[in-house]
Amino acid sequence: VLLQAPWPWSICALPSSMPLLLHLQDRPHVTAGDVTSETSMNASSCLQSSVDDSLLRGVKVSVMTSGFGRKFFSSSGTSKDYNTSRPVHRVDDFISHSWQTQRWAKFAAVCLFYNVPAATAASWLAAVVIFFLQTDMVGVLPTTLDFYTLHGGEVQVHSCGYWAMLFCPLVFVFVGVFRQELCPSRTVFVDKFCIHQEDEGLKRAGIRSIAGILKRSDRLVVLWTSSYFERLWCAYELASWIYLGRSNICFVPVSFAALAG
Asked: How would you label 34-58 residue by residue, b for 16+ Cβ within 10 Å and e otherwise?
């Protein structure tokens, strides 16, 4: 099957060996021994375009970023990780990423994508509040800096404070990192949390239903790295999304987010 996206570099050929190769890539771990009995299965019987309601699960962004993204350190999951997800009817965002990407880089990318609008608004609000608190009418915050202007041959003294320069960046960073902990966050699909990593039956069923999960997701969020298309699972997820005729894709450059962080 040849799937062609609107972009020339997103042409993905899915070989007949795709079912076996997908199991061996860096998504939820299935070893070669696990799939020996399935090598004769064709793509239609191994990878499904629908998902059972019991397999469609999601987690809040706050779960994904807890502990400053410590869950991104390794793809190995436990029953405890799985239990942080909940059955859902639809998923707001499907997070497509490679486990080869460093934990801190992905954490910064997720915070940048989900929290920067709120962080910007919060820092502007803080600036407005500080401005009024240091006006002569209110006078709660002292003005410690003076600057002079020449107007009509007269020198005029103006007073201001450094409070906004001090607190607004702090507000931006705090909200940019912790907004999802303070306010309701979107429901996302992340393989480690939403596919059982210890129950082999649930793991296989979840892996086979990736396309079905994509079908019931409102948006595809790609944590982009230069090695993204080197991972067959990543290529499959993006190709499936395009094949389904969906256009709501957000690319989040991980390297840019790490640099900004």
From this structure: ebeeeeeeeeeebbbeebeeebbbb
Distance CA 56, CA 174 (A): 32
**How far is Cα 64 from Cα 45, in angstroms, rounded to an integer?**
31
Rounded-to-integer distance, Cα 22 and Cα 232, Å: 6
* pLDDT tens digits, 125-165: 999 998 888 876 677 777 766 666 777 777 776 666 778 88
Q: Assess contact for 142 and 134: CB atoms under 8 A.
A: yes
Q: SS3 for 60?
A: strand
Q: What is the pTM of this model?
A: 0.74
How far apart CA 210 and CA 195 sit, in angstroms, is 10
> Exposure of 83 by Cβ count < 10 A (0-12 exposed, 13-18 middle, 19+ buried)?
exposed
Inter-axis angle of helices 103-133 and 163-182, nearest 10: 130
Q: What six digits make up the tokens of 25?
A: 């890539």
